[in-house]
Design goal:
The structure is a single chain. Helix 1 packs antiparallel against helix 2, helix 1 packs parallel to helix 7 and helix 3 packs across helix 4. By secondary structure, the chain is an alpha/beta fold. The protein is built from 8 helices and 7 strands, in the order H-H-H-E-H-E-H-E-E-H-E-H-H-E-E. The chain has a 7-stranded mixed beta sheet, sandwiched between helices. Helix content is 42%, strand content 23%. The longest helix is centred in the last third of the chain and has 22 residues. It has one domain: Vaccinia Virus protein VP39 (Rossmann fold, 3-Layer(aba) Sandwich). Helix 5 links the parallel strand 2 and strand 3.
Length: 221
Amino acid sequence: MLSYVFMKILESRPRSYDRAMDKASRGRVKQMKENVAAEVPDGSRVLEIGCGTGELAAMCIARDSTVEGFDASPAMVEVARQRIAEEGLHDKMTVEQMGVDGMDSLPDARYDAVVSTLVFSELSDDERRYALTNTRRVLKPGGICVIADEVRPRTSGQRLLYSMVRGPAFALSYLVSKAITRPVEDLAGEMKTAGFSVIKEVRSHGDAFAMVVGTLERVST
């Protein structure tokens, strides 16, 4: 869990971000992204919320998908665009600088899948609701949403251990980066409230991390 909090520190060095996160998390962050990419049907049109350097996007592209990503950090967007140039992904990936508040500009029913990793814990309650409402809007009928992030452990013992581990790291992260992250209280519940049918929730890391997969049911005609 320390590695996810230190993510905010590492974001100040976008060129080495993926390598540093992989080392700090002992490969867990990369594995998490691979797990998310594996949930996306091959050949999908994908929207990534908070695309960072484009690592997850590249994993989806390797499965024959196309990706449209956005990120609020201009430095991250610049690195993602360098990845596009260096790996020849111009026909497979586009990146824009914007936050979730810009999602209302995206067209209805455009994407087969929407993905996001380690972003929702940075958002306020209202921002998460807004992001999920627009995610539902931009997905095609039968589309899939896959979100992986920090969540609040479900038992008191797990929450105590989590606070002991996360507290000092959070304080250091805030001192260095002035960034605030909060574990999501009930990610699966928020997705259900937004209108998704949750088909999978995988908890890990002492119950403090979750990957939630939701779908939009097709409308019968």
